[in-house]
DNA sequence: TCATCCTTCTACACCGATGTAGATCACCGA
DNA sequence: TCGGTGATCTACATCGGTGTAGAAGGATGA
């Protein structure tokens, strides 16, 4: 059996409640008593049982983070940032993977977690505006990331529109006119793909150009493999293009590989840009022009808001848009 | 206040214990009672309080996973595999990041976690043989990954020696004789770096060759950036080499970038190989020859062993070595 | 008819910590 | 000397489930 507070109390010759008071920094304890209790704790190797404390307090000190897949660098780096941010609040993070499946995302929202987590950070990929009622959860929740929901929940998001416009305008400024887009999701209306493609199209329109449908290549999910496949398909189609805007970095990296394999010079023949600024984007060959979505800010802000909600903040739902930054690298600018 | 078992019991007109029995599948319950209770649970939206159940059982259903950094692809992919494996046992995973600092690794081992986790999967990077006594923890623990400890703990590990020998022999078979190694940690004796370098050296010796000291480049930690820096240093040194064995993939990818930047042809002038087989290795340009350490097997085996320990298995400590696989790709074999 | 057995359900203590109320004692000022 | 005040500590109920023992009622078999 593990050492309990009772054991410590007995060992120190005080009541259990006094041990509890010592552990919680209650001020009115004689110095001599305190040291004696601390000595007993040390001697017995006592560790407080969190379940018991939680039972009283109704809190667990754990928050959940639900992401599609950790093996996607963007989400791994996001998880890193969230764990680090949570630590500053003394919170522990449990991670759930939804694999971007609508079913699993819904389960994640409604699973009887049995008060295991005090709050949830949720990065939905598959849910759509039609699922909005599902977001009205009992435990505090903050939506992370990419999608734009106007719903009954806090939301910390990437500035998809401004970021995509910025990178598009960068490509246009380089004189590129036939820009292929990788990673569209035809039929989707509110997802990241739709938002980013919409922003791309409107940037073109504002420049007096028309988006070219045959240069918009579907890819789902957004991975190196699908990016490579989309690029193969594009090349096979014979369609001419002088730039590629991949809707995220992994797509771009997959595409980059295929381009170079086919002897296409980047950026001379084709400029390539992505979105996310994962670590790898700085070290690919050529390094990748991309948009940094402000991951650390997103993580820190989301945790802050969540902690606020957990402490009873019931003001209006907030929608925070993180600051993006365009990083121009070799894949568009040469050396 | 949240709905408790008492509320459900009252609503269904039974005792709390009967509700408990229904939830736990106790067999001797009239069908009519069971449906009535289930209806009440549904009606009130009852969720069992895990803290309370845990208080009785002494279990939390949570295991910890301690890794250096999730933003390193290898560990992100490992975490993915661990979470997936844990799920099949109905376990939840909390992740801690040690940043590969000895201090934080020790804290991780000894932190009063307050019975929060039933067991711990620990991937140490900074700890050495001298810390072996610290591995004698109260909660069940399985060591993961890279380092070779002969200590008082279960250990599921990468076959560093055989894997490194295999990739070294592959380079030798290609006729390469001046093989640079990136990522050594001078002075270290038992770490992954030392083990892999030792295996490399002995493979050379077995082939009748001598390792060349000036081609052994330090890099710590193992990241793209440090890999790139080490390669810059190597090139600056003027030392000739016809192959690079990077002690992990991210180092290799950083080095690859620098090589190509300098106009070196890979693999014609210099062959490059890594270790880990992260997803990116398949999609870099050129794609990267590397050793797959058997991540999924490691994760699944480690979770299995841990679950065994948690259930009281106190047989001798096990040391499992995962099956590795050499993946030959463009960076050594051309197209 | 009665002891026995089985099914179904309940009362109660208990897991380990903490909030509340109150006991004890020294000390202070009137 | 006595009520009052503050410091220090303790007894006890309580958080929300579950293990244990056993009660109630019907069926079974001798």
Protein topology:
2 copies of one chain form a homodimer.
Chain A: H1 5-12, H2 16-23, H3 31-44, H4 50-57, E1 62-67, H5 73-88, E2 92-97, H6 102-110, E3 119-122, E4 141-145, E5 154-157, H7 160-173, E6 179-184, H8 192-206, E7 216-218, H9 224-237, E8 243-246, H10 249-261, E9 271-273, E10 290-292, H11 295-310, E11 319-321, E12 325-327, H12 330-333
Helix pairs in contact in A: 1-2, 1-3, 5-11, 7-8, 9-10
The structure holds a DNA duplex (30 and 30 nucleotides).
Task: Write out key terms for the chains shown.
homodimer; alpha/beta; 6-stranded parallel sheet; 4-stranded parallel sheet; 15% strand; elongated; DNA-binding
Written account of the structure:
- Two copies of one chain form a homodimer.
- In chain A, 41% of the residues lie in helices and 15% in strands.
- Chain A has twelve helices and twelve strands.
- The first copy, chain A, has helices at residues 5-12, 16-23, 31-44, 50-57, 73-88, 102-110, 160-173, 192-206, 224-237, 249-261, 295-310, 330-333, and strands at residues 62-67, 92-97, 119-122, 141-145, 154-157, 179-184, 216-218, 243-246, 271-273, 290-292, 319-321, 325-327.
- The mean pLDDT of chain A is 92.
- Chain A binds a DNA duplex (30 and 30 nucleotides) through residues 4-6, 14-21, 23-24, 27-30, 33, 48-58.
């Amino acid at each position: 059996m593990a050492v309990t507070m009772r054991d410590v109390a007995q060992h120190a010759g005080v009541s259990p409640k006094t041990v509890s008071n010592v552990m919680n920094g209650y001020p009115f304890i004689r110095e001599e008593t305190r040291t004696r209790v601390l000595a007993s704790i040390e001697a017995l190797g006592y560790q407080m049982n969190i379940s018991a404390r939680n039972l009283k307090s109704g809190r667990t000190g754990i928050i959940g983070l639900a992401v599609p897949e950790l093996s996607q660098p963007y989400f791994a780096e996001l998880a890193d940032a969230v764990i680090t941010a949570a630590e500053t609040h003394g919170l522990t993070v449990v991670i759930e993977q939804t694999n971007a499946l609508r079913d699993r995302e819904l389960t994640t929202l409604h699973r009887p977690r049995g008060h295991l987590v005090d709050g949830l950070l949720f990065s939905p990929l598959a849910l759509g505006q039609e699922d909005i009622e599902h977001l009205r959860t009992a435990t505090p929740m903050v939506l992370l990331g990419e999608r734009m929901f106007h719903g009954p929940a806090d939301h910390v998001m990437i500035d998809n529109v401004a970021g995509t416009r910025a990178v598009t305008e960068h490509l246009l400024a380089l004189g590129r006119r036939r820009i292929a887009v990788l990673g569209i999701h035809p039929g989707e209306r509110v997802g990241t793909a739709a938002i980013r493609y919409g922003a791309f199209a409107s940037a073109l329109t504002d420049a007096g150009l028309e988006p070219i449908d045959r240069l918009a290549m579907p890819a789902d999910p957004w991975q190196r493999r699908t990016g490579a496949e989309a690029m193969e398909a594009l090349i096979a189609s014979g369609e001419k293009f002088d730039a590629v805007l991949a809707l995220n970095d992994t797509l771009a990296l997959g595409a980059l590989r295929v381009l170079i394999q086919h002897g296409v010079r980047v950026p001379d023949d084709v400029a390539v840009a992505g979105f996310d600024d994962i670590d790898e984007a700085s070290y690919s060959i050529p390094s990748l022009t991309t948009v940094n979505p402000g991951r650390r800010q997103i993580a820190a802000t989301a945790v802050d808001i969540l902690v606020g909600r957990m402490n009873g903040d019931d003001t209006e739902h907030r929608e925070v848009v993180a600051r993006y930054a365009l990083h121009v690298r070799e894949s568009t600018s040469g050396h």
